[in-house]
Amino acid sequence: MDNAIVATHPHTHETAVAAEHEHIVLPQHRHHFETQEQQREAATFGMWLFLLTEIMFFGGLFFAYLLYRNWYHDAFVVSSNQLSIPLGAANTAILISSGFFMALGVWAAEVKKQGLLVLFLVLTTFFGVAFLGIKAVEYHEKWEKHHIPGAHFDVSEFINPQAYGLKEKPLAPDMAQKTQVFFFLYFAMTGMHAFHMILGIGLLFWLTWRANRGEFSSGYVAPIENFGLYWHFVDIVWLFLFPLLYLINRHPGS
Amino acid sequence: MSATSYTIVNLPDQRTATIPKRNYLNNEDGLLSWLFTGDHKRIAILYLISITFFFFIGGAFAGLIRLELLTPQPDLVASDTYNKFFSMHGIVMIFLFLVPSVPATLGNFLIPIMIGAKDLAFPKVNLLSWYLYWIGGLFTLAALVLGGVDTGWTFTTPLSTHYLNTHVVTAATGVFIIGFSSIFTGLNFIVTLHRMRAPGMTWFRLPLFCWSNYAASILMVLGTPVLAITLVLVALERLVGIGVFDPTKGGDPLLFQHLFWFYSHPAVYIMILPGMGVISEVISTFSRKRVFGYTAVAFSSVAIALFGFFVWAHHMFIMGVSNYSALVFSLLTMLVAVPSAIKIFNWAFTLQKGSITFETPMLYAFGFLGLFTIGGMTGVFLGALGMDIHLTETYFIVAHFHFVMVGGMLMAFLAGIHFWWPKMTGRMYPESLSKLAAVTTFIGFNLTFLPQFILGYLGMPRRYHAYPPEFQVLNVLSTAGATVLGVGYMLPLLYLGWSLKYGAIAGNNPWQATGLEWQIQSPPLTENFIETPIVDHEAYDYEWLAHKTAQEVTTVG
Question: In terms of CATH, what superfamily is A40-247?
Fold first, then answer.
């Protein structure tokens, strides 16, 4: 019945063309869409909008970061020096690799290569897990140094850096307290990012299972494509977090 | 349709008329067929029942507040109980009633039909958003049952983070979850309006109801995530003591205000815009005229959505923001009145020389016009810096936003419910009783909230449960009005329930309205249209309708 309607009322040139070329109805075609083209466009558009809400969601945190960085510049610089650039850079490389394999996965789905798609999804998952592993190492270090905001937060390393073998300028005690704001924002932003990664990895397992059953090998690629958009969004958030938290103005005056 | 006719209602012959055998209500049976439905119309009905439930909970708190304020002494409840009353009233009414009211019920039901689609773009996401609404609602109810929240609906820091020992985190979790319900509704509407329109249904042929819901959806999608992250921060501040909003740890309570009002001012427009859409439909139908200045009304909705994002700091004039930013925000606040005024003037010109009839939805719409105009104008008073310093945190504010939210949105909601009731259920509500309810609501509303303008002007602060004895007369008037208002809201609940079984059979198009939703059977089929409609006329084209009806008669004869 859907096809009959398509045939009688093609409402744009594109769908008319699509209807001419594609007469097979995929099992994933939902009844309320006139054409598969419309269904695919709607899903992608919905995903972009969802990512827009995600930008607004992270936006609140970025706004707080910019405000407090401006207010407590010295504390933010010193705390930023506590973060490990090698680990952060490694994680950036790992996440970009993960995104790269995701992009290849979308390509594999589009050219209907089931084996390659599964392989690329597994690689995407592997690099995602590796990212989280390194993040856990970094978090653990903060835990040992009492740099987790809360009752056990310890500022002595910022008041008296020489005692810890650091070459920082010591901070006045009230400014040293403000390092807690930095570490809170660090944990909130990277934690929220990691939370999105964990959700994404859960989805990846599910998609890999479905891909392995051959669900995406017949031209129905919307879930892979839209998950790809989500995964790249998570990458991009990290590409903003890494410079903001690790790199900017790291050693002023040097 | 002569100028002297009293009504345009055109019902089928009641002796022979029947409800269509197959429709969305009886398509499937059983509770599970409702709980797992993907049908936008059924989800709308689920929402309608849910928000009515929460409306009466919120209303009960309003009643208790007015009862306490009957006397100047704090004699009914203790002060912290009173704080919980107005907090729960605000949280329930705003997040569980006003925000989802028109979009989630009427919008869900109508938008796909109005654009000639079979459903919203993502039916499962739509159902998910109803479940999220209920999970959030249950969290809010849990906070209520466990002992309530007394922060006010604004969760203001540092009050909410440092000084209270009530269930702030539970309530904030509830609001956080409801927020995602509203995000998903907005997302669904935007995608549907972009991608699902029937052939020939161009943007400027859309009914204005779709435009205003589109504008509200933009606000939901862009504003609500900011509220979500703000509430996460409040909850973390309470649980872990992180200090983003705590000055002793270097945080800034004003940051909370900025983030909170960045959502919560646009939220005001989330609440009012869909109501404006209802009013456009109702006024056009009962004046038998195309909405005057269709394009201006359509774009003013989008303009309100845009300006709405740049006025949030007018909630913070007395909180120590800089004079310059106060000046700019005051100016922007005045500007946002312009698109609202455009709408009011265009509706007035739609009425001019129209063949006006006074059916119940029209009475509610007239109520909306008057009350919303007062609410909007007093908003301009409050946007002026000098006046605001005198009037803020007084009953003037309370009266102002109740005029907009209750006098505006609730009137529009009731107008819409009555207007589309025949389409949703296939039956008419009792006409004279509903007119009585509309008039009762209007009188009760004015009696409740006009005295509060005077109280506020005289300096009675909001959020206190005791007041100087000289304010008692006006408070008694207000409480009396609240009682009348309560009756006005109970009446529709009773007679609409009654009409489900005993109402007259409505037929396809009792109002002789032009929208696509009136050209199909009532109640509609699950798939809405047997054949995808091809739209070849503008919205509100009554000549097209007359032509079509005339042809139908010839075919039958």
Answer: Cytochrome c oxidase, subunit III, four-helix bundle (1.20.120.80)
What's the predicted TM-score (pTM) here?
A: 0.91
Coil vs helix vs strand at B427: strand
Say whether pLDDT at A11 is over 50. no
User: Which has more confidence, A30 or A243?
Assistant: A243
A46 Cβ under 8 Å from any chain B Cβ: yes
Domain residue limits, chain A? 1-34, 40-247
H runs (alpha helix) in B240-359: 253-287, 294-308, 323-351
What domain range includes position B380?
31-556
Q: What is the pLDDT of residue B2?
A: 45
What is the chain B residue with the closest CA to A153?
B242
Residue that has been written with the tokens 């970094």 in this structure: A138
Phi, psi of A152 (to 5 degrees): -95, 10
Spatial contact of A194 and A135, defined as CB atoms under 8 Å apart: yes
Nearest chain B Cα distance for residue A237, angstroms: 16
From chain A, pick out residues whose CB is under 8 angstroms from the CB of B200: 11
pLDDT, one tens digit per residue, over B433-483 is 999 999 999 999 999 999 999 999 999 999 999 999 999 999 999 999 999
Q: Tokens 């949105």: give the residue.
A: B409
User: Is the CB of B249 less than 8 angstroms away from the CB of A31?
Assistant: no
Half-sphere exposure (Cβ direction) of B189: Cα atoms closer than 13 Å: 33
Answer whether A9 touches B (CB < 8 Å). yes
Q: What 3-state DSSP class applies to B99?
A: coil
Residue B212 has pLDDT above 90, yes or no: yes
Nearest residue of A to residue B262, measured between CA atoms? A60
Spell out the residues 6+ positions from residue B270 whose beta carbon is closer than 8 angstroms to its own: B99, B103, B182, B216, B219, B220, B223
> Measuring CA to CA, how many Å separate A145 from each of A122, A164, B269?
35, 11, 48
- Chain B stretch 97-136, residues whose beta carbon is closer than 8 A to a beta carbon of chain A: 117-119, 121-123, 125
CB of A149 within 8 Å of a chain B CB? The answer is yes
CA gap A226, A239 in Å, rounded: 20
A115 to chain B, closest Cα gap in Å = 30
The better pLDDT of the pair B341, A159 is held by B341
| Range in B73-77, B110-114, B204-208, B438-442 the model is least confident about | B73-77
Interface confidence, given as ipTM, is 0.84
- Side chain identity at residue B15, one-letter code: R
- Using alpha carbons, select from A127, A134, A132 the residue that is nearest to residue A102: A127
Taking an 8 Å cut-off on Cβ atoms, the answer to whether B250 and A177 are in contact is: yes
Amino acid in position A198: I
> Distance between CA B474 and CA B458 in Å, rounded?
11
CATH number of residue B381's parent domain = 1.20.210.10
Whether B62 maps to a domain, the answer reads yes
Residues 6+ apart with CB under 8 A from B329: B310, B311, B312, B313, B314, B317, B321
- The reply to whether B14 falls in a domain is no
Tell whether B15 is covered by a domain: no
Residues B87 and B90: their CA atoms lie apart, in Å, by: 5
pLDDT digits (tens, 9 = 90+) for B226-261: 999 999 999 988 888 878 888 888 888 999 999 999
How many domains in chain B? 1
SS (H, E, C) B211-258: HHHHHHHHHHHHHHHHHHHHHHHHHHHHHCCCCCCCHHHCCCHHHHHH
Residue B5: the pLDDT is 60
A68 with B242: Cβ contact below 8 A: no
Q: What is the mean pLDDT of chain B?
A: 92
B224 interfaces chain A, CB cutoff of 8 Å:
yes
Report d(CA A128, CA A97) in Å as an integer: 9
| B158 prior amide bond cis, ω within 30 | yes
Please report the pLDDT score of residue A106 as a whole number.
94
Instruction: For residue B26, tell me if it sits in a domain.
Output: no
